[in-house]
# Entry
Amino acid sequence: MDFKDYYKTLGLERGASEDEVRKAYRKLARKYHPDVSKEPDADQRMREVNEANDVLRDKDKRAAYDQLADHVARGGSPDGGFKPPPNWDEGFEFHRGPNQGPADHADFSEFFSSVFGAAERREAERRNYRARGEDHHAAIEIALEDALNGAEREITLRSQELAADGRPEFKTRTLAVKIPPGVHPGQYIRLAGQGMPGHGGEPAGDLYLEVRIAPHKLYRVEDRDLYMTLPITPTEGALGAQVKVPTPGGGVVEVTVPRNARNGLKLRLKERGLPGKPPGNLYLLLEIALPPADTDAARQAYEQLAQAAPFDPRRHLGV
# Structure
């Protein structure tokens, strides 16, 4: 099979404009149309002219054809015959008009059918394909208060959809989302029918929103549990104390710090985390905060403490 030079068929240069392609086709059609032409090979020449025009008038086919022509010019067919390289049509979409099916390849050459025929058949199959639309996934970040109490929010998403001509395009849309109480990080909120449109009259897919919770000034979220760092003084840690703690629901509770409490000790407030079945817990991580030694009285107090309660926190290091 030989490579066909469609520009030569229409008597054009490689960079010919769309208007030049149109004029050249009309001129040759008047010359070789079987109804009016007296040329002995008019029927065959008209087929060749139609084939060249079909490719060069379509910008996608023409771009793909030019790419093939460059491949041949670089020695892409060393044996003298032409064979399209693998995946040559990747990135191109070939289609007929809105009321046309695939081209009648019986009227075209072996070269045309081998190059463009499979691509047109794939496009026709896509148009006749029936299937439910694909599901889409996106992320949504919410405040901790929304996860605790539930909320209704509007979100804006940018997604790829198919235009009327079958080509993909990006569209922006705004959706109302109902956030249920107790939703936690990694959980999905499903919006039915908000995914990709279906094919052949089938229903659209769904949109799944992965929940992320924005950082909070007091609480850290893990699944349904909440964690909070609770600062205490050395005295409270050593002697024990009752201290007040804010809760995620907005109230205040008193908790007991046990005697000899260590830095990092974890206290649990049962079912004070995110709501659910079962509810999460609130964990308090104790952090001993040292008073600054910025006055004579404070420094004297530290010196008296060192004498009254000698303590070496590095003795396990063996130095």
Summary: Helices lie at 6-9, 18-32, 42-56, 59-73, 110-128, 144-149, 234-239, 296-308.
